[in-house]
From TrEMBL:
Keywords in alphabetical order: Lectin
Organism expressing this protein natively: Rhizopus microsporus ATCC 52813
Classification via SMART domains: RICIN
The organism's taxonomic lineage, starting at the top: Eukaryota, Fungi, Fungi incertae sedis, Mucoromycota, Mucoromycotina
Listed name of the protein: Ricin B-like lectin
Keyword Cell inner membrane appears in the UniProt entry: no
GO molecular function list: carbohydrate binding
Pfam families to which the protein is assigned, alphabetical: Ricin_B_lectin
Length: 143
């Protein structure tokens, strides 16, 4: 991956909004899309399949460990074992659960509004922009 060990924004291809913790840094904090402000809670790093939030060092996690459609995504401590709900792959603009590549990150209810929760959903056939993401490197001069 070209962004290994570097911070980046995860940007919705459809809306231009970024994945954010809204400044929350506790386990269980839900992930939403927000307008980019340049804050650390909008930055992520990719390491061994984990998407790590820069401000909290917690990872992107499927709530409850249940790999199914409609599960919200939150922050959680990185697991040493049984991390099936925390391991992600990135391909063709989709961010998918490594344990079930048919399960991808999506905007809840196909809503395009700021503040919309991120959930898991079945990957849709064809070009579906609400399920596609662009990784934008963080430029150090933004600090």
């Amino acid at each position: 991956m070209f962004l290994r060990d570097k911070a980046f924004y995860i940007v919705s291809k459809k809306t231009g909004l970024v994945l954010s913790t809204n400044g929350y840094t506790e386990e269980g904090s839900k992930i939403t899309v927000q307008n980019k402000t340049g804050e650390e809670h909008e930055l992520w790093q990719f390491e061994n399949g984990f998407l790590i939030n820069k401000s909290s060092s917690l990872v992107l996690d499927i709530v409850g460990g249940d790999l199914r459609v409609g599960q919200k995504v939150n922050l959680w401590g990185r697991k040493k074992t049984m991390a099936h709900n925390q391991r992600w792959g990135i391909r063709d603009g989709y961010i998918y659960a490594v344990a079930d590549p048919r399960l991808v990150l999506d905007l809840e209810g196909d809503c395009e509004d700021e503040g919309t929760y991120i959930v898991t959903n079945g990957r849709r056939v064809g070009n579906h922009d609400l399920q596609q993401w662009t990784l934008i490197p963080f430029a150090e001069e933004e600090e």
